[in-house]
Amino acid sequence: MLQVTRADVLASRVHAHQLDRTSGTLADTAVLDLGVQDTGPDAARWALAVRGLDDVPAEELVLVWTLRGAPHVYRRADLAGVAAATAPFSEADAAKRVLDAARPLRAAGIPVLAALDTVAGAMRAIVTAPVVKGEMSRLLTGRLDPPYLRECHPCRAVHTFEQPFRLAALRAGLELVPGTSPPVLRPVPGLGPATEVPPHLDVVRGYLRLHGPATPRQVAAYLDAPVADVRAHWPGDAVEVAVDGERRWLLAADVDRLGAGPARTTRLLGPFDPYLQTRDRALLVPDEARAADLWRTLGRPGAVLVDGEVAGTWRPRKAGRRLTVEVDPWCDLARPAVEQEAERLAAVRGTELAGVVLGG
Hints:
three-stranded mixed sheet; single chain; 16 strands; globular; alpha+beta
């Protein structure tokens, strides 16, 4: 069995995530195969920019709710395949993904997969033009039976459970209008059904390609799927390796990447950047206190990535059209490299960089 170190893994992931390149194309940007989570200001746009993909025509990208019910950006041309790739593997998987919505459905004898199709059918009938999420929810509530609904105390209203709402939207052929808050849904023009998953969109393979070497449990945690379903869809060309003594797997085609050596690069990664979506956080950030700060539930900072290592956190402070980047370094940082990335961030956000403040 091939023995690899933590340093080998981090270097391999930087190359896999293409964080060491300065330019690219829509077709060859690997993170778009698994989706780029668009949580926060210009999140997906910035994640693509730090991978050398700038000024992508908006019509070539699409924003939809997929994995974990989160908004993700994909290539529009891939959307039918994405719908097939991100659908639950099984009834057990669907029940896990909808969280607390599964209990009343099961009590009523309604399979969760059938329930998702029911919600999707109602959504498809409602949305013939762009509609705000709140209005969509109100109209949907009037079409669904009690097992699909819950009493929401914050809203002081009865409406459908959140995860079935989100997971059914793409099944209904709906996308999100970028930059809208609250979200606006609209029909996807010309979206046809996909019965097979294209290999490059396979979510288990995608996780191994970007975050490997990994375990089935880590892949399952990323997908919100049962481990048994992930094992059932485990790639036949996955190769076992030992990472500092722990058994993990990666795709056979990626084994040579483990010997590529470190990538010398500095990047300001957004809080939900694909590189930070790994489910083996202890490998990426071994210090528990620092990991807790980086992946906090509310007010999550971005990460300063230096040669594959998280070397600090950063937060943007905007005043008018001026942007200040405040950095909390965990080690000595090269200010010019950080300032160069901050300039790029300000440009992507359509602001002027006021400065970089290095703490400590």
